[in-house]
Amino acid sequence: MNKQVPHDKCIDNTLALLQEGYLFIQNRVNRYQCHLFETRLLGKKVICMSGKEASKLFYNTDLFKRKGALPKRVQKTLFGVNAIQTMDDEGHIHRKMFFMSLLDQEYQKQLTEITKKRWQAAINNWESTQQIVLFDEVNNILSQSVCEWAGVPLQASEVKNRAKDFSTMVNTLASIGPMYWKGKRARTRIEKWIRGMIADTRSGKLNVEKSSVLYKLSFYEELDDKLLNTQMAAIELINILRPIVAISRYITFTALALYENEECIEKLRLGNENTREMFIQEVRRYYPFAPFLAAIVRKNFIWHGCKFKQGRLVLVDIYGTNHDPRIWVNPYEFRPERFKEKKNGLFDFIPQGGGDPSKGHRCPGEGVTIELMKVGLDFLINQIEFKIPAQDLSYSLTKIPALPASGFIMSNIRVKL
Ligand code: HEM
Q1: Which residue, by CA, sits nearest to atom 18 of ligand 1?
Q2: Mean pLDDT taken over the chain
Q3: What is the pLDDT of residue 340?
Q4: Rounded to an integer, what distance in angstroms lies between the CA atom of residue 29 and that of residue 308?
Q5: For residue 11, what pLDDT is reported?
Q6: Which atom of ligand 1 is least distant from the CA of 368?
Q7: How close is the Cα of 86 to the center of ligand 1, in Å?
Q8: Of 406, 321, 284, 282, whose CA–CA distance to 59 is shortest?
Q9: Residue 342: its pLDDT value, please?
């Protein structure tokens, strides 16, 4: 046992983690007044850490690896088994560069244009309904947009069910019992569907554009010049489709942020691109989404008096780092202007991971996320008028992933003339 770092004594803290959610690491950091502590989770010894220095350490690939870090149950719902998130070294970088090439400026632009068109079509329908649940609607919009963009055929009659499955995979990431099985079934259905698309693309039965994401993934070759097997190709295509649909969660939080900070609306309407970008960044910092990251110690080392033993599981706190008072003044205030004063560094603002995405595991989809959040923001403040009926807009920091309870209900929607 490390004598110099606090040890959160208990047989196992897994239940506390499930009960405390996003606050699990932060609660103990506050209790021990130390940004590093040891505990036990899922029967394993774990080192938990928080803050900029900790996140910088975590992204040192000489000291940490990802293989073996993610529990199998999370892989079976959220990421897919043995996907990019679990890879290391040259194999990882090769696949990562491929992912990044599918999310470059040109692909981003195409997706943004398609998404705008889908929003427009949706709001025309909303005018004839009494009320809508924004989260569900944006899930549908983004499912249709991402499939059209990727070249994945999606019939109008399928949209609702596919969108629900994409969303369930994310929603059940920390679930146990029946909800976990619901997530697993959603993944099984989506994998089967996408495996079929990959097989049909490879055989030529499905005629897809060579520049499409579906085609590129179907014929992507690994370092050994071999194609991915159909299952793995499907898993990785889903690793692009699913998180794009998941931006609906951030767009729902964007709507909540506008509701909770009404004074921002006029500023956003009158402001420029920079004003909108600062608002979006503050939504990504302030509201909870990904809670923490996991890695395995590659070789023994000592940091701040703590012995990191080879094979030890280590968690770094995303939510806590984005609310660390050493980095953020009044972290629990929603203040977009903070991004005017502060240039975000590689390791202190980490809603989608830290470091350089081309050299490590940082999310390759941050550009896409920001652009699609901007599209959502523009529709909410400039293109439509609506009422917000009485509803439960609270969200819980103990439920991972978080979302306003009502999903953000809007009524009397009118397109602005
Ligand atoms: C990785 C969050 C959107 C694709 C990650 C990581 C986080 C994250 C925390 C892990 C970083 C690490 O392990 O160090 C989010 C959030 C999103 C989002 C909160 C908001 C919806 C996207 C989008 C895409 C995407 C839009 C693709 C279009 C990926 C992939 C990885 C990843 C493929 C694995 C990268 C790797 O292991 O090298 N994301 N992401 N994500 N994200 Fe995102």
Answers
A1: 243
A2: 95
A3: 92
A4: 18
A5: 82
A6: 26
A7: 13
A8: 321
A9: 73
Contact call for residues 135 and 403 (beta carbons, < 8 A): yes
* 247-260 and 263-270 helices, crossing angle to 10°: 110
The phi, psi pair for 126, rounded to 5°, reads -60, -30
Quote the CA–CA distance of 66 and 294 in Å, as a whole number: 7
Whole-number Cα distances in Å, 319 to 38, 57, 285: 18, 17, 8
Residue 50: CB atoms within 10 Å: 26
CA distance 409 to 387: 9
CB 115 within 8 Å of CB 122: no
Tokens 């560094």 belong to residue: 345
Q: Check if 96 has its Cβ closer than 6 Å to any atom of ligand 1.
A: yes
DSSP string covering 214-270, please?
A: HHHHHT-B-TTSPBPPHHHHHHHHHHHHHHHHTHHHHHHHHHHHHHHTTHHHHHHHH
User: ∠ at Cα 372 (263, 333), nearest 5°?
Assistant: 35
Q: Which of 58, 352, 362, 371 to mutate to test the pocket of ligand 1 (most atoms within 8 A of CB)?
A: 352
Q: Is the ipTM of this complex over 0.95?
A: yes
Expressed in angstroms and rounded, the spacing between residue 199 Cα and the centre of ligand 1 is: 26
What are the pLDDT digits (tens) for 64-96? Answer: 999 999 988 888 888 889 999 999 999 999 999
CA of 351 to the centre of ligand 1 (A): 9
Per the CB < 8 A criterion, the answer to whether 213 and 107 are in contact is: yes
Q: Which pLDDT tens digit goes with each residue over 188-230? A: 999 999 999 999 999 999 999 999 999 999 999 999 999 999 9
85 lines ligand 1 (CB under 6 A): yes
**CB-based contact 164:158 (threshold 8 Å):** no
Measured CA to CA, the distance from residue 149 to residue 320 in angstroms comes to: 35
Measured distance CA(135)–CA(247) in Å, rounded: 10
288, two tokens: 């909870």
**Looking at residue 361, what is its pLDDT?**
98
Helix 230-245 to helix 247-260 angle, to the nearest 10 degrees? 10
Give 325-340 pLDDT, tens digit per residue: 999 999 999 999 999 9
| Integer Cα distance of 279 and 336 in angstroms | 5
CATH superfamily of 14-415: Cytochrome P450 (1.10.630.10)
* 1 — pLDDT class (breaks 50, 70, 90): low
> CB-based contacts of 314: which residues, under 8 Å, 6+ apart?
46, 47, 48, 49, 58, 64, 294, 295, 296, 297, 308
